[in-house]
Amino acid sequence: MLKGKSKELHDDIVTDYSKEDFINLLAKIVLSADEFYPDRNKFKEEIKTNLRIGSEVPFNSVYEKIFGWLVNDIIGKWAKGQEGTIKAQKLIDIKDVYIKESLERPFIEQAVSAIPVFDFERQQQQDKIFIKQLSLIEADEDDIVDAIDHFLRASKERDRWAENGTIPCQEDINELESDISRNWKGHKKRHLIEAKTKPTLTKADVGNLIYIDSSNAAGYSLAGYPVIQPYTILGSLHILSDKLIIGWHPDWQTEIK
């Protein structure tokens, strides 16, 4: 609420000028972001970061489409005498639509930055079976933290896809898991055969080799489209490991109680 000199100035302006004068004045105001973002590229990077758009997306194309939509939507609201406001969720929805169009696919795998993982969530995974699987091959702490993050991100994305009720559906995910399991089986068979000629290798060593080769996230498809985010594959590995469908240690089926 205005007080003192500010209120007096306001009252004088209201008295001296009509509503039409104010409208005409406001119509001539131009808002410029140059004072805050003189570097245009920096401004675009801020937009990319705030909207959590991944590096795999052709950003310039999406950027132009988003701003074109913003201008058209706001002008349309002004023409109807409405406030030119945009809700955050609407902007996010439009962003996803343009990303899908740019990638020419009916779904997106969100960037890592769009799926935060918190310490309390990591702590909740400590007794999971996939952690025990990694412990059997003596995985180090960094590998375990990465595994937890991949597991959680892949799980959260699956939940989001299920809520949307669109592609990829459960059948698509089942097919992806079958591909991952098939590749794991091949890596396991090869390393168990090779281990017979390398007696110095421990079972933990063999398990590590199986795990490393199985963790190659390249070459997979989901719902007929190439997988973009590594966590989609790496997280799926740990989801399958947690279900005791696959494992790393040669004796994982008897060692996991």
Q: What is this entry, summarized?
A:
By secondary structure, the protein is mainly α. It has helices at 4-16, 19-27, 40-50, 59-79, 88-103, 119-124, 129-136, 141-164, 170-195, 203-214, 230-242, 252-255; strands at residues 221-222, 225-226.
Tell me about this structure.
With 257 residues, the chain is mainly α. Helices cover 63% and strands 2% of the residues. The protein has twelve helices and two strands; from the N terminus they run ααααααααααββαα. The longest helix has 26 residues, at 170-195. The model has no long low-confidence stretch (mean pLDDT 87).
Radius of gyration in whole Å, from Cα? 27 Å
Helix percent band:
55-70%
Major sheet: arrangement of strands: 1-2
**What is the quaternary state of this protein?**
single chain
Descriptive keywords:
single chain, 257 residues, 2 strands, 63% helix
Helix and strand topology:
Blueprint: H1 4-16, H2 19-27, H3 40-50, H4 59-79, H5 88-103, H6 119-124, H7 129-136, H8 141-164, H9 170-195, H10 203-214, E1 221-222, E2 225-226, H11 230-242, H12 252-255
Antiparallel strand pairs: 1-2
Helix pairs in contact: 4-5, 7-11, 8-11, 9-10
